[in-house]
Specification:
About 75% of the residues lie in helices and about 0% in strands. The protein is an all-alpha fold. The model has no long low-confidence stretch (mean pLDDT about 90).
Length: about 160
């Protein structure tokens, strides 16, 4: 009887993709959902949190690429940083923030024109609509950004190899 070779251990979880830290990337969607009831400075602060998350993930991926690459460390690290930053900026901050903003604005407008609810009730209802939309927009936005990146920026990386 021969012994089977030991399988390599699975890679450690990615702090920015596989842990609770990933939720920091959604801070701006939460901020946009609360826009109707909190000061706008808090909404902008939520964008700051999401942008810090995006930047930290990009730097982390760049460091990992630089450590794992045998040749052209700087090029691989640069590609990892740029790719991660652009992808995260689009998929975690810009597109979802805009989407939730428009959903909340439309829901507040529609509730104002179709109900007789008092303004505070409409604002809280708008916040609930925005928060409940977040889980439904994430996957389609992620897939769309993957397609966009694969169809544009990532083609540049492949032609340079």
């Amino acid at each position: 009887m021969g012994s089977r070779p030991a399988e390599p251990p699975p890679p450690p979880p990615d702090l920015y993709r596989d842990t609770w830290v990933r939720y920091l990337g959604y801070a701006n969607e939460v901020g946009e959902s609360f826009r109707a009831i909190v000061p706008v400075s808090l909404v902008w602060a939520s964008y700051g949190v999401a942008t810090l998350y995006v930047t930290a993930d990009a730097v982390d991926k760049g460091k990992k690429a630089a450590m794992s690459a045998e040749e052209s460390h700087a090029r691989r690290a640069t590609i990892a940083v740029v790719d991660t930053f652009v992808w995260q900026a689009l998929a975690s901050v810009i597109i979802p923030g805009f989407t939730i903003n428009r959903i909340c604005k439309a829901s507040l407008y529609l509730m104002g024109s179709m109900t007789r609810w008092p303004l505070p009730v409409r604002k809280w209802a708008t916040t609930a609509v925005g928060l409940s939309a977040i889980p439904f927009i994430i996957k389609p936005i992620d897939r769309s950004v993957d397609y966009l990146m694969d169809s544009s920026l990532r083609k540049l990386y492949k032609t340079e190899d």
